[in-house]
Protein backbone atom coordinates (compact mmCIF):
# COMPACT_ATOMS: atom_id res chain seq x y z
CA UNK A 1 0.00 0.00 0.00
CA UNK A 2 0.94 3.70 -0.02
CA UNK A 3 2.36 3.85 3.52
CA UNK A 4 4.60 0.84 2.98
CA UNK A 5 5.81 2.37 -0.28
CA UNK A 6 6.77 5.58 1.55
CA UNK A 7 8.61 3.61 4.19
CA UNK A 8 10.49 1.62 1.54
CA UNK A 9 11.29 4.90 -0.31
CA UNK A 10 12.67 6.50 2.87
CA UNK A 11 14.65 3.38 3.56
CA UNK A 12 16.16 3.47 0.03
CA UNK A 13 17.00 7.18 0.44
CA UNK A 14 18.74 6.43 3.73
CA UNK A 15 20.68 3.57 2.09
CA UNK A 16 21.64 5.84 -0.82
CA UNK A 17 22.88 8.48 1.63
CA UNK A 18 24.93 5.93 3.47
CA UNK A 19 26.39 4.70 0.16
CA UNK A 20 27.26 8.27 -0.86
CA UNK A 21 28.93 8.82 2.50
CA UNK A 22 30.79 5.53 2.21
CA UNK A 23 31.82 6.46 -1.37
CA UNK A 24 33.30 9.72 -0.10
CA UNK A 25 35.20 7.84 2.62
CA UNK A 26 36.43 5.33 0.05
CA UNK A 27 37.57 8.14 -2.29
CA UNK A 28 39.44 9.92 0.53
CA UNK A 29 40.97 6.60 1.62
CA UNK A 30 42.05 5.85 -1.95
CA UNK A 31 43.59 9.33 -2.27
CA UNK A 32 45.46 8.74 0.99
CA UNK A 33 46.73 5.40 -0.31
CA UNK A 34 47.95 7.02 -3.53
CA UNK A 35 49.64 9.80 -1.56
CA UNK A 36 51.33 7.19 0.66
CA UNK A 37 52.51 5.30 -2.41
CA UNK A 38 53.83 8.51 -3.99
CA UNK A 39 55.73 9.42 -0.84
CA UNK A 40 57.06 5.85 -0.63
CA UNK A 41 58.27 6.05 -4.25
CA UNK A 42 59.94 9.38 -3.58
CA UNK A 43 61.56 7.92 -0.47
CA UNK A 44 62.93 4.98 -2.40
CA UNK A 45 64.11 7.25 -5.21
CA UNK A 46 65.98 9.28 -2.63
CA UNK A 47 67.40 6.06 -1.19
CA UNK A 48 68.60 4.98 -4.64
CA UNK A 49 70.18 8.39 -5.22
CA UNK A 50 71.81 8.15 -1.79
CA UNK A 51 73.15 4.71 -2.70
CA UNK A 52 74.55 6.01 -6.01
CA UNK A 53 76.13 8.98 -4.24
CA UNK A 54 77.55 6.64 -1.60
CA UNK A 55 79.02 4.38 -4.30
CA UNK A 56 80.67 7.36 -6.01
CA UNK A 57 81.97 8.54 -2.63
CA UNK A 58 83.33 5.06 -1.93
CA UNK A 59 85.13 5.06 -5.32
CA UNK A 60 86.54 8.52 -4.67
CA UNK A 61 87.65 7.50 -1.18
CA UNK A 62 89.23 4.33 -2.53
CA UNK A 63 91.18 6.26 -5.17
CA UNK A 64 92.20 8.82 -2.57
CA UNK A 65 93.31 5.99 -0.26
CA UNK A 66 95.48 4.54 -3.05
CA UNK A 67 97.06 7.89 -3.91
CA UNK A 68 97.64 9.21 -0.40
CA UNK A 69 101.09 8.27 0.91
CA UNK A 70 100.31 8.75 4.59
CA UNK A 71 98.39 5.96 6.27
CA UNK A 72 96.67 8.36 8.70
CA UNK A 73 94.74 9.90 5.79
CA UNK A 74 93.61 6.43 4.73
CA UNK A 75 92.42 5.76 8.29
CA UNK A 76 90.39 9.02 8.24
CA UNK A 77 88.84 7.94 4.94
CA UNK A 78 87.92 4.60 6.52
CA UNK A 79 86.19 6.44 9.39
CA UNK A 80 84.26 8.57 6.92
CA UNK A 81 83.16 5.41 5.14
CA UNK A 82 81.97 3.91 8.43
CA UNK A 83 79.95 7.07 9.22
CA UNK A 84 78.38 6.94 5.76
CA UNK A 85 77.45 3.28 6.24
CA UNK A 86 75.74 4.21 9.54
CA UNK A 87 73.75 6.93 7.76
CA UNK A 88 72.73 4.43 5.11
CA UNK A 89 71.45 2.03 7.77
CA UNK A 90 69.42 4.85 9.32
CA UNK A 91 67.89 5.63 5.89
CA UNK A 92 67.11 1.93 5.41
CA UNK A 93 65.31 1.90 8.79
CA UNK A 94 63.21 4.90 7.66
CA UNK A 95 62.36 3.12 4.41
CA UNK A 96 61.29 0.03 6.37
CA UNK A 97 58.91 2.17 8.49
CA UNK A 98 57.47 3.70 5.31
CA UNK A 99 56.97 0.20 3.93
CA UNK A 100 55.07 -0.90 7.04
CA UNK A 101 52.84 2.21 6.80
CA UNK A 102 52.07 1.39 3.17
CA UNK A 103 51.18 -2.19 4.13
CA UNK A 104 48.77 -0.95 6.85
CA UNK A 105 47.17 1.48 4.38
CA UNK A 106 46.72 -1.34 1.87
CA UNK A 107 45.10 -3.50 4.58
CA UNK A 108 42.68 -0.69 5.48
CA UNK A 109 41.80 -0.29 1.80
CA UNK A 110 41.14 -4.02 1.58
CA UNK A 111 38.78 -3.82 4.57
CA UNK A 112 36.94 -0.87 3.01
CA UNK A 113 36.62 -2.82 -0.22
CA UNK A 114 35.16 -5.79 1.67
CA UNK A 115 32.61 -3.52 3.36
CA UNK A 116 31.63 -2.03 0.01
CA UNK A 117 31.15 -5.51 -1.45
CA UNK A 118 28.96 -6.45 1.54
CA UNK A 119 26.81 -3.35 1.06
CA UNK A 120 26.46 -4.12 -2.61
CA UNK A 121 25.29 -7.63 -1.81
CA UNK A 122 22.77 -6.29 0.68
CA UNK A 123 21.42 -3.81 -1.83
CA UNK A 124 21.05 -6.55 -4.45
CA UNK A 125 19.19 -8.78 -1.98
CA UNK A 126 16.84 -5.94 -1.18
CA UNK A 127 16.09 -5.63 -4.90
CA UNK A 128 15.55 -1.87 -4.86
CA UNK A 129 18.90 -0.63 -6.23
CA UNK A 130 18.95 0.67 -9.74
CA UNK A 131 21.05 -0.94 -12.48
CA UNK A 132 23.08 2.22 -13.10
CA UNK A 133 24.04 2.61 -9.44
CA UNK A 134 25.07 -1.03 -9.28
CA UNK A 135 27.32 -0.63 -12.34
CA UNK A 136 28.96 2.48 -10.85
CA UNK A 137 29.54 0.70 -7.58
CA UNK A 138 31.03 -2.29 -9.43
CA UNK A 139 33.40 -0.01 -11.34
CA UNK A 140 34.44 1.60 -8.09
CA UNK A 141 35.11 -1.80 -6.53
CA UNK A 142 37.15 -2.87 -9.57
CA UNK A 143 39.12 0.35 -9.35
CA UNK A 144 39.82 -0.30 -5.70
CA UNK A 145 40.89 -3.87 -6.50
CA UNK A 146 43.31 -2.59 -9.16
CA UNK A 147 44.66 -0.07 -6.68
CA UNK A 148 45.14 -2.93 -4.21
CA UNK A 149 47.12 -4.89 -6.84
CA UNK A 150 49.28 -1.84 -7.59
CA UNK A 151 49.86 -1.33 -3.88
CA UNK A 152 50.88 -4.98 -3.54
CA UNK A 153 53.36 -4.60 -6.39
CA UNK A 154 54.75 -1.42 -4.84
CA UNK A 155 55.20 -3.26 -1.56
CA UNK A 156 57.05 -6.10 -3.31
CA UNK A 157 59.28 -3.57 -5.05
CA UNK A 158 59.91 -1.88 -1.70
CA UNK A 159 60.88 -5.25 -0.20
CA UNK A 160 63.35 -5.89 -3.02
CA UNK A 161 64.83 -2.41 -2.68
CA UNK A 162 65.23 -2.89 1.05
CA UNK A 163 66.91 -6.26 0.47
CA UNK A 164 69.32 -4.70 -2.05
CA UNK A 165 70.06 -1.89 0.39
CA UNK A 166 70.81 -4.42 3.11
CA UNK A 167 73.18 -6.35 0.80
CA UNK A 168 74.91 -3.11 -0.24
CA UNK A 169 75.36 -2.19 3.41
CA UNK A 170 76.96 -5.56 4.17
CA UNK A 171 79.22 -5.21 1.12
CA UNK A 172 80.36 -1.76 2.23
CA UNK A 173 81.07 -3.09 5.70
CA UNK A 174 83.20 -5.91 4.24
CA UNK A 175 85.07 -3.39 2.07
CA UNK A 176 85.69 -1.25 5.12
CA UNK A 177 87.05 -4.27 7.02
CA UNK A 178 89.32 -5.15 4.07
CA UNK A 179 90.60 -1.57 3.95
CA UNK A 180 91.42 -1.65 7.66
CA UNK A 181 93.27 -4.96 7.23
CA UNK A 182 95.27 -3.56 4.29
CA UNK A 183 96.20 -0.50 6.32
CA UNK A 184 97.43 -2.73 9.14
CA UNK A 185 99.47 -4.84 6.69
CA UNK A 186 100.94 -1.73 5.08
CA UNK A 187 101.93 -0.39 8.48
CA UNK A 188 103.68 -3.63 9.37
CA UNK A 189 105.45 -3.70 6.00
CA UNK A 190 106.63 -0.10 6.40
CA UNK A 191 107.93 -0.86 9.90
CA UNK A 192 109.83 -3.88 8.53
CA UNK A 193 111.34 -1.84 5.71
CA UNK A 194 112.34 0.95 8.10
CA UNK A 195 114.08 -1.58 10.33
CA UNK A 196 115.90 -2.99 7.33
CA UNK A 197 116.98 0.51 6.26
CA UNK A 198 118.22 1.28 9.77
CA UNK A 199 120.24 -1.94 9.75
CA UNK A 200 121.69 -1.03 6.36
CA UNK A 201 122.62 2.48 7.55
CA UNK A 202 124.35 1.04 10.63
CA UNK A 203 126.21 -1.42 8.40
CA UNK A 204 127.31 1.38 6.06
CA UNK A 205 128.50 3.47 9.02
CA UNK A 206 130.62 0.63 10.34
CA UNK A 207 132.13 -0.06 6.91
CA UNK A 208 132.91 3.63 6.34
CA UNK A 209 134.70 3.85 9.69
CA UNK A 210 136.71 0.72 8.91
CA UNK A 211 137.64 1.89 5.42
CA UNK A 212 138.55 5.38 6.67
CA UNK A 213 140.93 3.85 9.17
CA UNK A 214 142.44 1.63 6.47
CA UNK A 215 142.94 4.62 4.15
CA UNK A 216 144.58 6.66 6.94
CA UNK A 217 146.96 3.79 7.80
CA UNK A 218 147.98 3.39 4.16
CA UNK A 219 148.52 7.15 3.85
CA UNK A 220 150.72 7.31 6.96
CA UNK A 221 152.82 4.37 5.80
CA UNK A 222 153.40 5.96 2.40
CA UNK A 223 154.28 9.33 3.99
CA UNK A 224 156.97 7.67 6.16
CA UNK A 225 158.53 5.99 3.14
CA UNK A 226 158.50 9.09 0.88
CA UNK A 227 161.35 11.66 1.50
CA UNK A 228 160.13 14.26 -1.03
CA UNK A 229 158.57 17.60 -0.05
CA UNK A 230 155.37 17.17 -2.03
CA UNK A 231 152.00 17.45 -0.38
CA UNK A 232 150.44 14.53 1.49
CA UNK A 233 147.62 14.15 -1.02
CA UNK A 234 150.05 13.74 -3.97
CA UNK A 235 152.21 11.32 -1.98
CA UNK A 236 149.15 9.20 -1.17
CA UNK A 237 148.02 9.16 -4.79
CA UNK A 238 151.52 8.29 -6.04
CA UNK A 239 151.96 5.44 -3.56
CA UNK A 240 148.61 3.96 -4.55
CA UNK A 241 149.45 4.46 -8.23
CA UNK A 242 152.62 2.34 -7.86
CA UNK A 243 150.44 -0.44 -6.50
CA UNK A 244 148.02 -0.24 -9.45
CA UNK A 245 145.42 2.20 -8.10
CA UNK A 246 143.60 5.20 -9.52
CA UNK A 247 142.67 8.58 -8.07
CA UNK A 248 139.55 10.58 -8.85
CA UNK A 249 139.01 14.32 -8.31
CA UNK A 250 135.63 15.04 -6.75
CA UNK A 251 134.69 18.49 -5.49
CA UNK A 252 138.29 19.47 -4.70
CA UNK A 253 139.10 16.21 -2.84
CA UNK A 254 141.29 13.44 -4.22
CA UNK A 255 139.62 10.06 -3.60
CA UNK A 256 142.00 7.12 -3.98
CA UNK A 257 140.85 3.62 -4.90
CA UNK A 258 143.13 0.64 -4.21
CA UNK A 259 142.38 -1.78 -7.05
CA UNK A 260 144.28 -4.65 -5.38
CA UNK A 261 142.13 -4.29 -2.25
CA UNK A 262 138.95 -3.84 -4.26
CA UNK A 263 139.59 -6.87 -6.45
CA UNK A 264 140.56 -9.13 -3.56
CA UNK A 265 137.61 -8.04 -1.37
CA UNK A 266 134.96 -8.23 -4.08
CA UNK A 267 136.02 -11.33 -6.02
CA UNK A 268 137.69 -13.39 -3.30
CA UNK A 269 141.23 -12.81 -4.63
CA UNK A 270 140.61 -14.79 -7.83
CA UNK A 271 140.38 -11.98 -10.42
CA UNK A 272 140.05 -8.22 -10.57
CA UNK A 273 136.54 -6.76 -10.78
CA UNK A 274 136.57 -3.62 -12.99
CA UNK A 275 133.47 -2.34 -11.13
CA UNK A 276 134.87 -2.78 -7.60
CA UNK A 277 135.58 0.20 -5.34
CA UNK A 278 136.73 0.45 -1.74
CA UNK A 279 133.15 0.78 -0.47
CA UNK A 280 132.46 4.49 -0.11
CA UNK A 281 130.52 6.38 -2.83
CA UNK A 282 132.74 8.11 -5.39
CA UNK A 283 131.60 11.39 -6.97
CA UNK A 284 132.56 11.16 -10.63
CA UNK A 285 132.32 13.55 -13.57
CA UNK A 286 130.87 12.84 -17.03
CA UNK A 287 133.16 11.96 -19.89
CA UNK A 288 131.20 14.01 -22.40
CA UNK A 289 128.03 16.11 -22.31
CA UNK A 290 125.62 17.48 -24.90
CA UNK A 291 124.03 20.44 -23.02
CA UNK A 292 121.46 21.11 -25.75
CA UNK A 293 120.84 17.68 -27.17
CA UNK A 294 117.15 18.72 -27.36
CA UNK A 295 115.33 22.03 -26.89
CA UNK A 296 113.02 20.55 -24.23
CA UNK A 297 113.07 17.72 -21.71
CA UNK A 298 114.24 14.25 -22.72
CA UNK A 299 111.87 11.46 -21.65
CA UNK A 300 113.85 8.33 -22.55
CA UNK A 301 117.28 7.11 -23.67
CA UNK A 302 118.33 3.71 -25.00
CA UNK A 303 121.54 2.29 -26.47
CA UNK A 304 121.33 0.71 -29.89
CA UNK A 305 122.09 -3.00 -29.54
CA UNK A 306 122.66 -3.35 -33.29
CA UNK A 307 125.97 -1.45 -32.98
CA UNK A 308 127.45 -4.13 -30.72
CA UNK A 309 126.35 -6.94 -33.03
CA UNK A 310 127.82 -5.11 -36.05
CA UNK A 311 131.09 -4.27 -34.25
CA UNK A 312 130.55 -0.50 -34.62
CA UNK A 313 130.88 2.28 -32.09
CA UNK A 314 127.92 2.28 -29.71
CA UNK A 315 125.27 4.98 -30.05
CA UNK A 316 122.20 6.09 -28.11
CA UNK A 317 118.73 7.24 -29.13
CA UNK A 318 116.99 9.95 -27.08
CA UNK A 319 113.23 10.62 -27.03
CA UNK A 320 112.19 14.20 -26.33
CA UNK A 321 109.09 16.30 -25.80
CA UNK A 322 110.01 18.27 -28.95
CA UNK A 323 108.66 15.35 -31.02
CA UNK A 324 112.00 13.98 -32.23
CA UNK A 325 114.30 11.06 -31.49
CA UNK A 326 118.01 11.76 -32.03
CA UNK A 327 121.03 9.49 -32.31
CA UNK A 328 124.33 10.38 -30.59
CA UNK A 329 127.84 8.90 -30.35
CA UNK A 330 130.59 9.72 -27.86
CA UNK A 331 133.11 10.51 -30.62
CA UNK A 332 130.78 13.02 -32.35
CA UNK A 333 130.11 16.58 -31.25
CA UNK A 334 126.52 16.64 -32.58
CA UNK A 335 123.72 14.22 -33.30
CA UNK A 336 124.33 11.58 -35.93
CA UNK A 337 120.72 11.51 -37.13
CA UNK A 338 117.27 12.81 -36.23
CA UNK A 339 113.99 10.90 -36.55
CA UNK A 340 110.82 12.98 -36.93
CA UNK A 341 107.67 11.95 -38.75
CA UNK A 342 105.76 15.24 -39.05
CA UNK A 343 106.33 18.93 -39.47
CA UNK A 344 107.54 20.75 -36.39
CA UNK A 345 104.17 22.39 -35.67
CA UNK A 346 102.35 19.03 -35.86
CA UNK A 347 104.73 16.92 -33.78
CA UNK A 348 103.65 15.24 -30.56
CA UNK A 349 105.97 14.57 -27.64
CA UNK A 350 107.93 11.30 -27.78
CA UNK A 351 107.46 9.50 -24.44
CA UNK A 352 109.42 6.27 -25.06
CA UNK A 353 111.82 4.80 -27.64
CA UNK A 354 113.33 1.39 -28.36
CA UNK A 355 115.65 0.22 -31.14
CA UNK A 356 116.36 -3.32 -32.36
CA UNK A 357 117.08 -4.94 -35.71
CA UNK A 358 117.30 -1.66 -37.59
CA UNK A 359 113.81 -0.58 -36.43
CA UNK A 360 113.15 2.32 -34.05
CA UNK A 361 109.76 2.47 -32.29
CA UNK A 362 108.59 5.86 -30.94
CA UNK A 363 105.62 6.12 -28.52
CA UNK A 364 103.96 9.54 -28.87
CA UNK A 365 101.74 11.56 -26.54
CA UNK A 366 98.91 11.58 -29.11
CA UNK A 367 98.48 7.80 -28.46
CA UNK A 368 100.15 6.79 -31.72
CA UNK A 369 103.30 4.76 -32.46
CA UNK A 370 105.84 5.54 -35.21
CA UNK A 371 108.15 2.92 -36.76
CA UNK A 372 111.35 4.18 -38.42
CA UNK A 373 114.01 2.57 -40.59
CA UNK A 374 117.16 3.52 -38.65
CA UNK A 375 119.56 3.16 -41.58
CA UNK A 376 117.50 5.21 -44.06
CA UNK A 377 116.07 7.56 -41.38
CA UNK A 378 112.65 7.15 -42.93
CA UNK A 379 109.21 6.65 -41.41
CA UNK A 380 107.99 3.17 -42.35
CA UNK A 381 104.59 3.11 -40.68
CA UNK A 382 102.50 4.94 -38.09
CA UNK A 383 99.88 3.23 -35.90
CA UNK A 384 97.17 5.78 -35.15
CA UNK A 385 95.14 5.55 -31.91
CA UNK A 386 97.09 2.53 -30.74
CA UNK A 387 95.71 2.97 -27.20
CA UNK A 388 93.01 4.85 -25.35
CA UNK A 389 95.55 6.73 -23.20
CA UNK A 390 99.16 7.86 -23.10
CA UNK A 391 101.67 5.20 -24.17
CA UNK A 392 104.49 5.12 -21.61
CA UNK A 393 106.34 1.99 -22.78
CA UNK A 394 107.44 0.46 -26.11
CA UNK A 395 109.67 -2.61 -26.66
CA UNK A 396 110.86 -4.10 -29.96
CA UNK A 397 111.69 -7.82 -29.96
CA UNK A 398 115.36 -8.61 -30.49
CA UNK A 399 117.43 -9.66 -32.29
CA UNK A 400 114.74 -10.01 -34.99
CA UNK A 401 112.23 -7.13 -34.97
CA UNK A 402 109.08 -9.16 -35.54
CA UNK A 403 106.91 -7.90 -32.68
CA UNK A 404 106.32 -4.58 -30.93
CA UNK A 405 104.87 -4.42 -27.41
CA UNK A 406 103.27 -1.23 -26.05
CA UNK A 407 101.90 -0.38 -22.61
CA UNK A 408 99.53 2.46 -21.76
CA UNK A 409 97.67 4.11 -18.89
CA UNK A 410 94.46 2.60 -20.37
CA UNK A 411 95.52 -0.64 -18.57
CA UNK A 412 96.26 -2.49 -21.81
CA UNK A 413 99.42 -4.15 -23.14
CA UNK A 414 99.23 -4.74 -26.89
CA UNK A 415 101.37 -6.70 -29.35
CA UNK A 416 101.84 -5.52 -32.94
CA UNK A 417 103.14 -7.54 -35.91
CA UNK A 418 105.84 -5.48 -37.62
CA UNK A 419 105.85 -7.75 -40.67
CA UNK A 420 102.25 -6.71 -41.51
CA UNK A 421 102.59 -2.94 -41.07
CA UNK A 422 101.76 -3.01 -37.38
CA UNK A 423 98.67 -5.23 -37.16
CA UNK A 424 97.39 -5.82 -33.64
CA UNK A 425 97.85 -9.54 -32.88
CA UNK A 426 97.18 -9.66 -29.12
CA UNK A 427 95.90 -7.51 -26.26
CA UNK A 428 96.29 -8.06 -22.53
CA UNK A 429 94.13 -6.33 -19.92
CA UNK A 430 95.68 -5.38 -16.57
CA UNK A 431 93.80 -4.20 -13.45
CA UNK A 432 95.92 -1.04 -13.21
CA UNK A 433 97.56 1.57 -15.47
CA UNK A 434 100.84 0.52 -17.10
CA UNK A 435 103.70 2.97 -16.40
CA UNK A 436 106.62 1.10 -17.98
CA UNK A 437 107.38 -1.89 -20.17
CA UNK A 438 110.37 -4.06 -20.94
CA UNK A 439 111.18 -7.46 -22.41
CA UNK A 440 113.44 -10.38 -21.62
CA UNK A 441 116.00 -11.29 -24.27
CA UNK A 442 115.74 -14.87 -25.41
CA UNK A 443 112.26 -15.45 -23.90
CA UNK A 444 108.63 -14.98 -24.91
CA UNK A 445 107.84 -12.81 -21.88
CA UNK A 446 106.91 -9.15 -21.68
CA UNK A 447 107.31 -7.46 -18.29
CA UNK A 448 105.14 -4.49 -17.27
CA UNK A 449 105.16 -2.19 -14.22
CA UNK A 450 101.86 -0.75 -13.00
CA UNK A 451 100.38 1.97 -10.85
CA UNK A 452 99.28 -0.54 -8.19
CA UNK A 453 102.94 -1.45 -7.55
CA UNK A 454 102.77 -4.89 -9.21
CA UNK A 455 105.23 -6.27 -11.80
CA UNK A 456 103.38 -8.55 -14.23
CA UNK A 457 104.80 -11.12 -16.67
CA UNK A 458 102.89 -11.74 -19.92
CA UNK A 459 103.46 -14.56 -22.40
CA UNK A 460 103.46 -13.41 -26.04
CA UNK A 461 102.10 -16.78 -27.16
CA UNK A 462 99.19 -16.90 -24.70
CA UNK A 463 95.67 -16.59 -26.05
CA UNK A 464 94.09 -15.35 -22.80
CA UNK A 465 94.50 -11.96 -21.14
CA UNK A 466 95.79 -13.16 -17.76
CA UNK A 467 99.44 -12.65 -16.77
CA UNK A 468 101.71 -15.65 -16.35
CA UNK A 469 102.69 -14.41 -12.90
CA UNK A 470 103.11 -11.19 -10.93
CA UNK A 471 105.29 -9.76 -8.19
CA UNK A 472 104.08 -7.36 -5.51
CA UNK A 473 100.93 -6.80 -3.53
CA UNK A 474 98.07 -4.35 -3.30
CA UNK A 475 98.57 -0.80 -1.99
CA UNK A 476 102.26 -0.83 -3.00
CA UNK A 477 103.88 2.36 -4.38
CA UNK A 478 103.55 2.80 -8.16
CA UNK A 479 106.33 1.44 -10.37
CA UNK A 480 107.94 4.19 -12.48
CA UNK A 481 110.56 2.22 -14.41
CA UNK A 482 111.84 -1.25 -15.25
CA UNK A 483 115.24 -2.51 -16.41
CA UNK A 484 115.68 -5.85 -18.10
CA UNK A 485 118.52 -8.33 -18.04
CA UNK A 486 120.68 -9.18 -21.05
CA UNK A 487 123.04 -11.92 -22.14
CA UNK A 488 121.60 -14.65 -19.93
CA UNK A 489 121.26 -12.64 -16.68
CA UNK A 490 117.88 -13.48 -15.13
CA UNK A 491 117.31 -10.17 -13.36
CA UNK A 492 114.50 -7.58 -13.46
CA UNK A 493 114.87 -4.21 -11.71
CA UNK A 494 111.84 -2.13 -10.64
CA UNK A 495 112.07 1.51 -9.47
CA UNK A 496 109.13 2.65 -7.30
CA UNK A 497 107.80 6.07 -6.35
CA UNK A 498 108.96 5.73 -2.73
CA UNK A 499 112.62 5.91 -3.97
CA UNK A 500 113.23 2.20 -3.52
CA UNK A 501 114.74 -0.15 -6.10
CA UNK A 502 113.66 -3.80 -6.07
CA UNK A 503 115.76 -6.46 -7.82
CA UNK A 504 113.88 -9.66 -8.76
CA UNK A 505 114.80 -13.05 -10.20
CA UNK A 506 112.59 -13.55 -13.26
CA UNK A 507 112.70 -17.35 -12.85
CA UNK A 508 111.67 -17.71 -9.20
CA UNK A 509 109.87 -14.31 -9.05
CA UNK A 510 111.66 -13.72 -5.74
CA UNK A 511 113.29 -10.49 -4.59
CA UNK A 512 117.08 -10.56 -4.65
CA UNK A 513 117.88 -7.13 -3.21
CA UNK A 514 116.32 -3.87 -1.97
CA UNK A 515 118.32 -0.73 -2.79
CA UNK A 516 117.84 2.76 -1.29
CA UNK A 517 119.82 5.87 -0.36
CA UNK A 518 117.77 8.37 1.73
CA UNK A 519 120.25 11.23 1.30
CA UNK A 520 121.12 11.06 -2.41
CA UNK A 521 118.28 9.16 -4.08
CA UNK A 522 114.90 10.91 -4.47
CA UNK A 523 112.03 10.62 -6.94
CA UNK A 524 110.22 13.67 -8.31
CA UNK A 525 106.64 13.64 -6.89
CA UNK A 526 105.08 14.49 -10.28
CA UNK A 527 107.08 11.95 -12.31
CA UNK A 528 105.14 9.24 -14.13
CA UNK A 529 108.25 7.43 -15.38
CA UNK A 530 111.86 7.17 -14.21
CA UNK A 531 113.86 4.54 -16.02
CA UNK A 532 116.67 2.67 -14.19
CA UNK A 533 119.43 0.71 -15.92
CA UNK A 534 121.05 -2.68 -15.33
CA UNK A 535 124.72 -3.13 -16.21
CA UNK A 536 125.77 -5.93 -18.60
CA UNK A 537 127.32 -7.83 -15.68
CA UNK A 538 123.80 -8.22 -14.17
CA UNK A 539 125.07 -6.98 -10.80
CA UNK A 540 125.24 -3.19 -10.86
CA UNK A 541 122.17 -0.96 -11.10
CA UNK A 542 122.07 2.75 -11.97
CA UNK A 543 119.07 4.89 -11.00
CA UNK A 544 118.14 8.52 -11.84
CA UNK A 545 117.53 10.91 -8.95
CA UNK A 546 115.46 14.09 -8.73
CA UNK A 547 118.57 15.81 -7.31
CA UNK A 548 120.24 15.59 -10.73
CA UNK A 549 122.56 12.74 -9.71
CA UNK A 550 122.78 9.16 -10.90
CA UNK A 551 123.53 6.53 -8.27
CA UNK A 552 125.33 3.25 -8.95
CA UNK A 553 124.38 0.35 -6.64
CA UNK A 554 125.97 -3.05 -6.18
CA UNK A 555 123.17 -5.61 -5.85
CA UNK A 556 125.48 -8.12 -4.14
CA UNK A 557 126.22 -5.77 -1.20
CA UNK A 558 123.21 -3.35 -1.61
CA UNK A 559 125.72 -0.48 -1.25
CA UNK A 560 125.98 2.72 -3.28
CA UNK A 561 129.38 2.50 -4.97
CA UNK A 562 129.37 5.73 -7.03
CA UNK A 563 127.48 9.03 -7.35
CA UNK A 564 127.48 10.52 -10.84
CA UNK A 565 126.96 14.19 -10.03
CA UNK A 566 125.93 16.83 -12.57
CA UNK A 567 125.72 19.77 -10.16
CA UNK A 568 129.24 20.97 -11.06
CA UNK A 569 128.48 20.97 -14.81
CA UNK A 570 125.45 23.26 -14.84
CA UNK A 571 125.18 25.68 -17.75
CA UNK A 572 124.68 28.73 -15.53
CA UNK A 573 127.97 29.59 -13.71
CA UNK A 574 126.04 31.30 -10.93
CA UNK A 575 124.18 28.06 -10.21
CA UNK A 576 127.19 25.74 -10.17
CA UNK A 577 127.79 23.99 -6.89
CA UNK A 578 124.40 24.93 -5.45
CA UNK A 579 122.39 22.11 -3.97
CA UNK A 580 119.48 21.16 -6.24
CA UNK A 581 120.72 23.38 -9.11
CA UNK A 582 120.93 20.45 -11.52
CA UNK A 583 117.66 19.41 -13.21
CA UNK A 584 116.15 16.02 -12.31
CA UNK A 585 117.31 13.03 -14.33
CA UNK A 586 114.53 11.24 -16.24
CA UNK A 587 116.18 8.09 -17.63
CA UNK A 588 119.51 6.33 -18.15
CA UNK A 589 120.87 3.24 -19.88
CA UNK A 590 124.03 1.14 -19.96
CA UNK A 591 125.86 0.29 -23.16
CA UNK A 592 125.32 -3.40 -23.99
CA UNK A 593 129.08 -3.96 -24.43
CA UNK A 594 130.17 -6.43 -21.71
CA UNK A 595 133.77 -5.18 -21.67
CA UNK A 596 132.95 -1.49 -21.37
CA UNK A 597 131.28 0.38 -18.50
CA UNK A 598 129.51 3.20 -20.40
CA UNK A 599 126.38 4.91 -19.08
CA UNK A 600 124.13 7.54 -20.72
CA UNK A 601 121.89 9.90 -18.70
CA UNK A 602 119.25 12.48 -19.75
CA UNK A 603 117.47 15.19 -17.78
CA UNK A 604 114.59 17.65 -17.80
CA UNK A 605 116.56 20.41 -19.57
CA UNK A 606 117.43 18.32 -22.63
CA UNK A 607 121.01 17.44 -21.58
CA UNK A 608 122.67 14.16 -22.57
CA UNK A 609 125.77 12.96 -20.66
CA UNK A 610 128.07 9.96 -21.09
CA UNK A 611 129.86 8.40 -18.10
CA UNK A 612 132.63 5.81 -18.23
Summarize, please:
The strands form 8 sheets. This protein has a 5-stranded mixed beta sheet with strand order 3-28-27-26-25, with no helix packed on it. Strands 4-31-30-29 form a 4-stranded antiparallel beta sheet, with no helix packed on it. A 4-stranded antiparallel beta sheet has the order 5-6-7-8, with no helix packed on it. By secondary structure, it is α+β, with helices and mostly antiparallel strands. Helices cover 40% and strands 26% of the residues.
Q: Care to describe what's here?
A:
The protein is α+β, with helices and mostly antiparallel strands and 612 residues long. It is built from six helices and 31 strands. It has helices at residues 2-67, 71-126, 131-225, 232-242, 259-267, 305-310, and strands spanning 246-250, 253-257, 282-284, 288-290, 298-303, 315-320, 325-329, 337-339, 350-356, 359-364, 369-373, 378-383, 391-396, 403-408, 412-417, 423-429, 434-439, 445-450, 455-459, 469-471, 479-484, 491-496, 501-505, 511-515, 533-534, 540-544, 550-554, 559-564, 585-590, 599-603, 608-611. The strands form eight sheets. It has a five-stranded mixed sheet, with no helix packed on it. The protein has a four-stranded antiparallel sheet with strand order 4-31-30-29, with no helix packed on it. The longest helix has 95 residues, at 131-225.
Amino acid sequence: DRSSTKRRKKKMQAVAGELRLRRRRESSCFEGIMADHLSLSLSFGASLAAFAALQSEVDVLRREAEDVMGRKDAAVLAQRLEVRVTELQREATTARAAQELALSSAQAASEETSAAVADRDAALNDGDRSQAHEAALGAKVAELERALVVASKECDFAKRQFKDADEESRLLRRQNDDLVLRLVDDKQRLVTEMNAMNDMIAKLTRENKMLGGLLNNNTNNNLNKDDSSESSSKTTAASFGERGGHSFAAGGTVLVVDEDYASSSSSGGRQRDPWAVVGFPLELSPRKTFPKAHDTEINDVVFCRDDVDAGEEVSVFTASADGTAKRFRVSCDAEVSCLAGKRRAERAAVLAVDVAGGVAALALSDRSVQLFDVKRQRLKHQIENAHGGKILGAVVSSPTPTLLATGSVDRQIKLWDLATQGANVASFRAPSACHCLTGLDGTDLVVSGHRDGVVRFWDKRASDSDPVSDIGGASAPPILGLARSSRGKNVVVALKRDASVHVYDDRTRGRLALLAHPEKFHVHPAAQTARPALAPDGRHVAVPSATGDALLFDTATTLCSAVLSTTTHHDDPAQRGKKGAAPPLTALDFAPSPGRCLLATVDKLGTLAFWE
